[in-house]
Amino acid sequence: MILTRLVCISLENGVLNWPVVYFLLAFVSLAFSISVTLHAVLHKRDVRSVIGWVGLAWFTPVLGSLAYLVLGINRIHRKASTLKIRESWNKYPDAELNSHDLEQVEIVRKDFPNIAGLAAAGHHLSKLQLKPGNSVEPLVDGDEAYPAMLEAIGAATSSVALLSYIFDCDRVGVMFEEALVAAQQRGVEVRVLVDDVGSKYSKPNMVRRLRAAGLKTTGFLPAQLPRLPKYANMRNHRKILVVDGQVGFTGGTNIREGHCLEMAPDFPVQCLHFILRGPVVRQLSRVFAIDWAFATGEELSGDTWFPKIDRVGEVWARGIEHGPDEQFERLTDLIAAALASAQQRVRIVTPYFLPHSSLIQSLNAAALRNVEVEIYIPAHNNITLVQWACTAQLWQNLEKGCRVFTTPDPFDHTKVMIVDDIWSLIGSTNWDPRSLRLNFEFNVECYSPDFAMKLNQIIDGKAETASEITLADVNARRLPIRLRDGLARLASPYL
Fold it and tell me: Which domain holds residue 40?
């Protein structure tokens, strides 16, 4: 009532009463700033985040509050979607551990208690059981990943579930479109989910094109008004393909010809993707079903999407989903647990290395315990601001004994972590605030020396051409460069 009265007074006789207008604007700005302060204090976990948002709201009147409204509030809650389709996951209960499984568990508990503790951490964080009997194979670049994925789609008999952050309308995208359409024409149930922002990386928009072809396709969290203020900063960065509920693919490879080096794209990108078989594939299907139900309201259930899955290998594996909803900071906690459990060596390959302070400290703590910590990043990042910000904070790890290596072009989009040549983490997550705090991501933790050896061989190949960055190199930058990089680092929470 008071606000309405003030508006009427400000327009009395059709003439603006400027003192009243100024008072009205000040009142609105004060109300916004107080609201932001109260919400941030009550809901933000990180003290620096609270201080930053409150400061922005008070020192940038109205605009700061609007920025908080768009970027600072998490409105995504998806427990309902999870509960609706839970029966589909449980139709075929998990097989009990056999004598061979129990022997393996006992060996790990006795000889590798640190790894047993890490497995317990994964269970507490994900609430999912570690699945024995899986096969996980790396696929190098789109040159290996795309043929395997297209072959699986071509052999599908019941269902295809495809989730990708980017699905470009280019030579690779058209191949996938044709394979998906052909599968549906054979009577296969096909669902395609693409992040709405990722779908706009090329024209024409592939979501609309797939819909026009008759495929059930939707964009995740449409990034346009009126939903833009709510969800603009929360993207689905997962890459999941499940065929017939039996064969799964995940990793860091989007659907775009840049990942296919044999096509000689304008901007070639190295990456790793993975083909999975065995009980863990159900966890990929589970994540897709939750995302699909959230985006469309359709519940995927029954043997078409969740069939019985037999064991096919020796890898123990578990899916780890995380995002800005109920799984907030789940992966950060798991990585910290992995670093704390490391006894011998940690190897990390990531395209974007902007860890927040807690992970920097975890890396340093491992190095100080004489654990060999190796970090591989691209020599030339595809986002210049990220490269500057990354360089600005490398000293924090280098001075404690971590080793950092840069890999030459093509740009390396690989996302892998290995601990003690036993535990591996693969998936879609980068070591940056956007992946670890804002995006919906999916990763798989694998317990297998043989699989870790395969990944180590791939990293060894990168190491042969990599160049090491030393603390002296970082300190030798000229002052203007150091200032530029330092300023870029201030934007790291939003990169």
Answer: 2-72
